[in-house]
Amino acid sequence: MNKYADDAPQSADKCIGACGEGWLCEVSEMWKGQAMSLKIDEELFRGRSEFQDVYVFKNSAYGNVLVLDGVIQATERDEFAYQEMITHLPLCALNEEPKRVLVVGGGDGGVLREVTRHGSIERIEIAEIDGMVVEMSKKFLPSMAVGFDDARVEVNICDGIKYVGDAEEGTYDAIIVDSSDPIGPASVLFEEAFFKKMHRALKPGGVVCTQAECVWLHIDLIEDLAKMCKGIFVGGSMAYGYTTIPTYPSGQIGFMMCSKPAADGSTVDFTKAKRFPRPADESALKPMRYYNPQVHAAAFVLPEFARAALEPHLVPGSE
Amino acid sequence: MNKYADDAPQSADKCIGACGEGWLCEVSEMWKGQAMSLKIDEELFRGRSEFQDVYVFKNSAYGNVLVLDGVIQATERDEFAYQEMITHLPLCALNEEPKRVLVVGGGDGGVLREVTRHGSIERIEIAEIDGMVVEMSKKFLPSMAVGFDDARVEVNICDGIKYVGDAEEGTYDAIIVDSSDPIGPASVLFEEAFFKKMHRALKPGGVVCTQAECVWLHIDLIEDLAKMCKGIFVGGSMAYGYTTIPTYPSGQIGFMMCSKPAADGSTVDFTKAKRFPRPADESALKPMRYYNPQVHAAAFVLPEFARAALEPHLVPGSE
């Protein structure tokens, strides 16, 4: 299914200076012929973890920027768009208030920060494979790493697929997969075996939300992902939403959401916001800057070419 | 108001090769620290008109690309998003069916193509300052230049501001301003004098829709533009909508829309699609690929940070 699975991940070396000296130019086999370029005002870290190439630099417009295998993962200026949307689209759509949530990937802590905005949640687990990402985020992306400070968060530096597979059946209200692209360590997070494990680990009525690329670049990959999910989330609902975000390829990124039917057979209508994120302590976090209930509904309205391609594979919710 | 008005426009020379050999890297004072890069697979034209630097090249992913003063204006692959949205958001929102429309700028013909989809329209004028843009588009962007072929279209190679100023009061149902950025020849298209002339040239109940940059990059400029428009379109309505488009800076671009009150005092609710574009001859054009009635409504839903900044300056319609 994943045509990039066998491609070799690249290092930042290929991207630094590719756009003239002092620029990071995000060239990749995944978006041939185009590249987002960001000026490197100061190099903050350059290294290699057990899993991937890790690079952090400062840009005058976007603040600190985290780059894994030569691909921009997060910038201080626009990360909120991604973190708020991948988190609140599923958590605000659940029919029941969420109590237990798992984040796979997301080692920068940004998704955790958003999950903690839900006062109903009692336990938040994260399974991130690469400890260096957590370490770098705590050092250079403190506004995201703040997510690790919440007392409900349990950090597991481990293989997320194994973690999900080891969970008891029916454990989670929501699983959020904050993965990098399907080249390198994250390629397995786009495979059927992983989605089957997530389906098993969800409570009835629970939902999965996974990073699912961009309709302008990867409509075929998204279509294939939707077909695969449909075969697993039988009797459930499925939706595709997106957010704009300047530093992701083509300026936006989408999310595939699937729900497992509840005991009474009802499923989640992802397009409807049923609650607003209310932290137990309202003063703990800065207000959200992207998400609101109107943005929630609009996120599922796709350009005509993408609607025509994806709608046949999606399944509306039934409450 | 326009902080870029005094900046010198740049040529493609500054951008070609700035990202390593064989790439166009869209560096600009208007989006410091970031740049969209497109690989140049073949140079098709490089020249200078009386008004600006004109460059056309071929990219394997985006097809032929038109660049003015070093800034990407249109690519064959994603232009439809911009052309459909800048055209149908205003034309489908009008309370009365449009009959007479003026396009200012838009020399590539893409907006004309979309305007011709409205069978009710009897007369379409275009005022484009630069004949070389029209010429290059007919040569290298035929799927856009097809807009010039419609018998209702009258082409005027002239100063759009003068053209609007010379029009009789109350002439147009809609004026669409398809301008480049507010550096160089288009900077005057963001000024008060031009908006006052457009207001005068509109019929009661008529609307203006102008290219109005990106909320991620230029929220201050958009706020200033909104304040200015509010002082001119007294008693009318005002809205800001946007489209995603990979090859514009930060992956999206917005439109400022203003309406003049009708004789009975009613104004246009831009957020509601009141008709679907129906060409007199359905076979003349390929189907639309971005616009549909749901996309119309969703285009006005802004990320929370942009809503908070702009909503106080906008005016809902009253029918």
Automatic annotation (TrEMBL), chains A, B:
SUPFAM superfamilies to which the protein is assigned, alphabetical:
S-adenosyl-L-methionine-dependent methyltransferases
Reading the lineage from the top rank, the first entry is Eukaryota
Print the organism lineage: Eukaryota, Viridiplantae, Chlorophyta, Mamiellophyceae, Mamiellales
InterPro entries linked: PABS, PABS_CS, SAM-dependent_MTases_sf, Spermi_synthase, Spermi_synthase_euk, Spermidine_synt_N, Spermidine_synt_N_sf
The PABS domain covers which part of the protein? 21-260
Q: Does the keyword Nucleotide-binding apply?
A: no
**Which organism is the protein's source?**
Ostreococcus lucimarinus (strain CCE9901)
Q: Which GO terms describe its cellular component?
A: cytosol
EC number from the UniProt entry: 2.5.1.16
Q: What is this protein called?
A: spermidine synthase
